[in-house]
Structure formats: structure tokens, C-alpha cells
């Protein structure tokens, strides 16, 4: 809780609480800052401190001053909730269950300072029962010791579910006794580097275990037992994922008869028309269930190609026999079988939202990753959902300027964006439907994450934002309140032996465009706390003597804003910059001569002429995407002197976003006869995988009412933000 807590009792001395010292003397109030994550449901602070160290707090020796108790009749809080009181009499922690007691102890550990515990009173319960992280160990394998480090941090911040992605085309990662070739022939590959092995795909082969130079690994059953025993101590449930029916190329290297062609390297999907595929699924899931006590078993279900099924005689025969009208229903047939099998064993099936295609199995739980609509739709059907939309909950996405970060798959989820996510917006569902939103999960896919240090850098501290989303009441969550608390946790994470991202010195720009007064107000925000920000508006490098940012920068025409954080008079990092234009095209009508790609309309058809510039991600609601050529016409309302027209495009090849081959400007006075004012080609190679921007700027002296821009697509998507007209 970031709000200063005031007390008027007489108390002298300096006390360290969280990361800030406070002083109280006679007849004075004092301020205290407690950097708990997640923030408790209810907390009050009073003056005073109970002197104790960690040994005394969590030691096994009974103490009248430290009282831990479980009271099953504590009905006013949830099964994971607790009440905590620290005063001059000592510490009293009460919970309904062992889990609640455990979480109360984590709060005590976070409260503990070198001087002891501050006087607090807390009543706490989680908002959601499911608070999870996902770890992909297939693309890159991480040993059990690394998994245990992550489990340790999860528990400290009250995350209670680890979803282990154990199998995928990159390698099979769990010992299965009945199918030993899954690990002996499908757990190692020729290259560790994903771009060399998968993206280029010239020699995408698996190697037998023990082959010199082979990359990979897997968990023995004893490894799994060790992980699960440690997770149990930390009150973390571990959900295993075994992929069906897609993402399974590695299986067919070991057992090629399970794919439609009967040959390795021909398909990613199981042959659903082959009864052996179902036997394999049941056998593998049986051994998995013998190891994992989790009620939930994840069967994947995502991104199946389905192409082979359309030509496979066995699959077509099964479709005819069962009256399945398309391959979506064929996939659903296998997923339903998995659901029935798991249900018969007393377990529950969970899968990615593609398991809805062809009809959702009646007992299934859905992980909604392709946005939120599938999740809400499932909840309205009366079935359970875990919300994990990629635009917020993918921790393998860039967390700062991609040009300055380790290579990633694309996307952009800085911690502020992660923290902004609300799994259950007000009025999105009825009270009964809302009960089916079990909680939230963030996913870490590891195509480009090769080491434990890099893994931790990507997961933390963004995982702490997920922890607060899952635990703290929505009405108590606030970014400005969370920001100083998460900054205070960076050294804590380091003491755990983790390698967290230290948070960025980059600045976030947001804008308020006022079309009535024809002005733009620019707002700056920082992940770092505290942050002394200096800025300029003429494109020059800011110095300590430059204006200090307070509450907005007013722009009435154009500005090249550069801003940076300063500490002790020194600039930290590099300046962040943004071009701002209240230009003549704002609010003018625009017509598209060809169709926009559905879902990438950004702020609607007027978004290219609204004054708002896009940021570092094509998913920020300001960039518009096109799968074919861009061809648009702006109507200025009357013949107008035009001196410059520019349009900016993005390139990030991981998600298939490319610069146009060229951009052409045409002008017309009557909307019928157009004159070309030039063509500007791209200067960025399509082979450049890094984030790049190019502004296509035309200058001259033209009289025109209509302005036409054509951008020629070379492949993938064209993404553009604002058309600027002067």
C-alpha cells in the first residue's frame, strides 16, 4: 500500500519499513511506506515496531509472542485468506487452511525489516483462486533447479499455479516408460539456436540422445517428483501440458505411425483416424496422472494445421463414420475423447481456446489466449476459464524498446501494460457467469530464451504484476501505487538468486488531442521510481538545466520532444523521443479504396488522422494493419495549399510486419484526375529482423483537395500510424 499512513501517538526513533525510513518524534506524525506485493485486501498501520528477526519469526520454537493458528471456522475469509495482527503484544496470524497460513507468513517475510515488524492489522484474501505462470520447457529445456527457483519466487508473491509446457515440436521433455523413444529420439535436436533450427528450417532434425553436439534434455520421473515435492511445500499446483493433436512433430520422429503419412518430418498433427493415436494419448496421460496430483491436466489443442486430415483416408473415413462435417469437428472429436478419459480418472481437462472449435467438450476448462472474447463466451456457456490474453499476458514479448533488448518473438508488454490487465471488467459478465472466471495466467514461451538468466530477466518483475492482478481487489489496484513497490522488490528478487529486469529508464508517452482548442497535451510516465524527468521540445538532448516534467507538455503545432530521467545530475540511459503534430489533416475525412485487415483497425477509420502517434508495438491501438496494399484518400474539404505529407511504417519481421516496398503520393483538386507527386522506396531490408521505423515524407508546393497515398505490400502486414499533412 503506497498511501502514507499517519499516526499521532508519541513515538521516537527512526524505523525502516520496506525501503523508506520514517521518523517520529514527540507531538509529530510520521509517514511509512510498506512495499507489499500483492497489496492486501485490507490493511491498517499504526506507530510502533515489534522487534524480531527472521529466525524468531519463523523458528520452530514456540513463543507466546508469535502465534500461528489454523481456524477452519474463520468463514469471513477464503480458503487462502488470513488475518494478521502485529502490535506490542507480538504477532498473531490466523487462517482457515495451511495455504492461508503459508500466505500470511509470506506477508510477514515481506514486512520484516532489520528492526523488526511494523505494527499492522491485515485481513487478506485473493481475488481469484487461479494465479498462474506458464513455462515452456520444450523450445528450450531448463533443469529442475531452475524450475524450483521460479517456484520459490512464485510462492513469495502468492502465485499458486505453474503450468509446465512439457511437449512441443521442439522436444519431448518428460520420461514415459511405455514410449521410451520419446526421450531417446525426440528430446534432442541439431541446434540450440531457434532461428537456426526452426526459423530457417533448412536442417530441422532431431538427434538420438547421446549424439555428440545434440541439444536438449528431459525430466526423469524422479526429477518430476522432486519438482512436485518442492511445489507442494510452496503451495503451488503444477499443471502438466501434453500437446494434442498439433505441435507434435517430435512424436512422429519416434513413432511415425501416429501421423497421417506414417513418416517423420511430414506433419505436426496426430492422425485422428488412427486408433493408435488414441491409445498413445491414453497411455501417456495415464503415466502423467500417476506423477502429477493436479486435478487439471492440459492437453494443448492449439494451432493444429489440420491440412493432412483433409487428404488422409483414415481421417476421412472416421469423419464419415461419425458424421463430422469438417476438420474442426474432427479435432473436437479427439479433444472430447481426452476430456472423457480424464474425467473417468477423476481429473479435469484444460486446453487453449482452440478446443472450442468444432464444439466445446462439456466438462472442459478453457485458457483464453487469443484475446478475451473466447473466455467470456465460455463463461456465458457456464464453463470455467483462465484468462491469459497474449496482448497482456505474454512474458516472452519485449518489455522495453525492442531495439535495445535481447531478441524476442515480437509484441510489446512492458510491466505497465501487464499491470493494466483486468481479467473481469465490470459488467462484462453476470454475477453467475463471473464465477467461471477462475483467474489469470501469464505465459513465457522460450523460442528465443536460451539461458536461466534470460528466462528470469523476461519473467521478473512482470510476474509480480500478474501476482497483484490475481490477488488484489481491482478497486485497490493502481499503477502509480504499484510502481514504487515493484521498484523496491528488484533487490529482493536479486537476493533470491534471480536475474530480474531492472526496469527501464525509457519513458512512456501518452497524448490527449483536443480538437476544440486545437492542441495536444503530452504526458510522460516512467517505470523507475523515483524519477526526475527533464525534457526539451526542439529535438535537442535534455540536460539537468532543461525544464522538469510535472503534469503535461502542451503542443499547439509541432514538437520534437526528448525526455530523460536524471539521477544526481546525470542522465540515465538514452533520451526517449516523440514527434508531435497538431497538423492540418486532423479530423479530415478518409476513404480506404481497399479492405483493412479485420482486427487491426486501431482506433477506427479516423485513426490515421486523429493526431495520436503509435508507439513501439503494432498492438497499441494506434497502428493500423493491412494484408494487401494500402490505398487511401483524404478529403481536405476544399482546394488547399499543401507543403508536406508524411506517413510512418513499422517493421518487425517476427510477427510478419514489413515495410512497404514503396509509398506513392498523388494529389487532385477534383477527386477524378490525380497527379503523382513522387514515389519513395523503403530503405530497410526485409531480412532485418529488428524493430525498424521509416517515415515516407513528401515535400513540395501543391494545390489539392484530395490526397491519395498508396503503399505497396511486399509480404505479411503493412502497419502505419499517422498521416501528417501540412
In brief, what are we looking at here?
This protein is α/β, with parallel strands linked by helices and 726 residues long.
Give a structural overview.
By secondary structure, this protein is an alpha/beta fold. Helices cover 23% and strands 30% of the residues. It is built from 18 helices and 33 strands. Strands 8-9-15-16-17-18-19-20 form an 8-stranded parallel beta barrel, surrounded by 6 helices.
CA distance, first residue to last residue: 48 Å
Strand content: 25-35%
Question: Total strand count, please?
Answer: 33
* Structural class by sheet pairing and helices: alpha/beta
The helical percent reads: 10-25%
Strand order in the sheet with the most strands = 8-9-15-16-17-18-19-20
* Shape type: globular
Give the radius of gyration.
29 Å
Main β-sheet, in a few words? 8 strands, parallel, barrel
The pLDDT mean sits at 93
Give the helix tally: 18
Q: Which consecutive residue ranges, at least 5 long each, have pLDDT under 50?
A: 1-31
Amino acid at each position: 500500500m503506497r498511501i502514507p499512513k499517519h499516526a499521532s501517538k508519541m513515538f521516537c526513533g527512526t524505523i525502516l519499513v520496506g525501503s523508506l525510513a520514517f521518523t517520529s518524534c514527540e507531538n509529530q506524525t510520521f509517514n511509512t511506506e510498506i512495499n507489499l506485493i500483492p497489496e492486501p485486501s485490507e490493511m491498517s498501520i499504526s506507530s510502533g515496531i515489534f522487534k524480531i528477526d527472521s529466525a524468531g519469526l519463523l523458528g520452530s520454537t514456540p513463543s507466546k509472542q508469535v502465534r500461528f493458528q489454523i481456524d477452519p471456522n474463520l468463514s469471513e475469509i477464503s480458503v487462502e485468506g488470513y488475518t494478521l495482527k502485529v502490535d506490542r503484544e507480538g504477532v498473531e496470524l490466523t487462517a482457515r487452511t495451511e495455504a492461508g497460513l503459508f500466505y500470511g507468513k509470506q506477508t510477514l517475510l515481506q514486512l520484516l525489516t532489520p528492526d523488526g515488524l511494523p505494527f499492522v492489522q491485515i485481513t487478506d484474501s485473493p481475488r481469484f483462486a487461479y494465479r498462474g505462470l506458464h513455462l515452456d520447457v520444450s523450445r528450450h529445456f531448463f533443469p529442475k533447479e531452475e524450475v524450483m527457483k521460479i517456484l520459490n519466487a512464485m510462492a513469495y508473491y502468492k502465485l499458486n499455479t505453474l503450468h509446465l509446457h512439457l511437449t512441443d515440436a521442439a522436444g519431448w521433455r518428460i520420461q514415459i516408460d511405455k514410449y521410451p523413444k520419446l526421450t531417446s529420439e525426440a528430446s534432442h535436436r541439431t541446434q540450440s539456436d531457434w532461428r537456426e533450427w526452426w526459423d530457417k528450417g533448412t536442417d530441422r532434425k532431431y538427434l538420438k540422445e547421446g549424439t555428440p553436439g545434440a541439444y536438449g534434455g528431459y525430466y526423469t520421473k524422479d526429477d518430476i517428483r522432486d519438482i512436485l515435492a518442492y511445489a507442494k511445500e510452496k503451495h503451488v499446483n503444477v499443471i502438466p501440458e501434453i500437446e494434442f493433436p498439433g505441435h507434435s512433430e517430435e512424436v512422429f520422429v519416434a513413432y511415425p505411425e501416429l501421423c497421417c503419412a506414417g513418416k517423420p518430418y511430414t506433419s505436426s498433427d496426430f492422425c485422428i483416424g488412427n486408433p493408435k493415436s488414441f491409445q498413445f494419448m491414453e497411455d501417456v496421460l495415464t503415466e502423467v496422472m500417476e506423477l502429477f496430483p493436479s486435478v487439471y491436466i492440459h492437453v494443448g489443442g492449439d494451432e493444429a494445421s489440420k491440412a493432412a486430415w483433409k487428404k488422409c483416408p483414415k481421417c476421412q473415413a472416421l469423419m464419415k463414420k461419425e458424421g463430422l462435417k469438417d476438420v474442426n469437428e474432427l479435432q473436437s472429436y479427439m479433444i472430447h475423447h481426452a476430456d472423457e478419459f480424464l474425467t473417468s480418472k477423476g481429473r479435469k481437462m484444460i486446453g487453449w481456446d482452440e478446443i472450442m472449435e468444432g464444439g466445446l467438450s462439456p466438462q472442459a476448462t478453457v485458457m483464453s489466449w487469443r484475446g478475451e472474447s473466447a473466455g467470456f463466451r465460455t463463461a456465458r456457456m457456464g464453463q470455467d476459464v483462465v484468462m491469459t490474453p497474449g496482448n497482456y499476458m505474454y512474458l516472452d514479448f519485449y518489455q522495453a524498446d525492442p531495439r535495445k533488448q535481447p531478441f524476442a518473438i515480437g509484441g510489446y508488454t512492458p510491466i505497465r501494460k501487464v499491470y493494466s490487465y483486468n481479467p473481469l471488467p465490470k459488467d462484462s459478465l453476470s454475477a453467475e457467469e463471473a464465477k467461471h472466471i477462475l483467474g489469470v495466467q501469464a505465459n513465457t514461451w522460450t523460442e528465443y530464451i536460451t539461458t536461466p538468466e534470460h528466462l528470469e530477466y523476461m519473467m521478473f518483475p512482470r510476474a509480480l504484476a500478474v501476482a497483484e492482478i490475481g490477488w488484489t481487489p481491482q478497486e485497490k489496484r493502481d499503477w502509480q501505487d504499484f510502481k514504487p513497490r515493484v521498484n523496491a522488490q528488484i533487490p529482493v528478487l536479486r537476493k533470491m538468486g534471480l536475474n530480474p529486469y531492472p526496469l527501464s529508464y525509457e519513458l512512456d508517452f501518452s497524448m490527449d488531442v483536443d480538437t476544440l482548442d486545437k492542441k495536444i497535451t503530452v504526458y510522460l510516465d516512467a517505470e523507475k521510481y523515483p524519477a526526475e524527468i527533464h525534457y526539451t521540445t526542439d529535438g535537442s538532448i535534455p540536460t539537468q538545466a532543461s525544464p522538469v516534467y510535472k503534469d503535461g507538455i502542451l503542443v499547439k503545432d509541432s514538437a520534437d520532444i526528448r525526455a530523460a530521467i536524471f539521477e544526481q545530475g546525470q542522465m540515465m540511459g538514452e533520451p526517449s523521443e516523440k514527434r508531435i503534430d497538431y497538423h492540418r489533416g486532423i479530423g479530415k475525412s478518409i476513404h480506404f479504396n481497399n479492405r483493412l485487415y479485420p482486427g487491426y483497425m486501431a482506433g477506427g477509420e479516423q485513426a490515421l488522422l486523429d493526431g495520436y502517434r503509435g508507439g513501439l508495438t503494432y498492438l497499441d491501438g494506434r497502428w493500423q494493419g493491412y494484408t494487401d496494399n494500402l490505398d487511401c484518400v483524404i478529403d481536405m474539404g476544399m482546394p488547399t495549399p499543401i507543403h508536406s505529407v508524411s506517413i510512418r511504417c513499422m517493421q518487425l519481421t517476427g510477427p510478419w510486419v514489413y515495410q512497404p516496398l514503396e509509398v506513392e503520393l498523388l494529389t487532385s483538386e477534383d477527386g477524378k484526375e490525380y497527379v503523382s507527386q513522387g514515389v519513395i522506396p523503403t530503405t530497410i531490408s526485409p531480412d532485418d529482423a529488428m524493430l525498424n521505423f521509416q517515415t515516407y515524407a513528401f515535400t513540395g508546393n501543391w494545390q489539392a483537395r484530395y490526397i491519395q497515398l498508396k503503399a505497396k505490400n511486399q509480404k505479411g502486414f503493412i502497419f502505419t500510424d499517422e498521416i501528417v499533412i501540412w
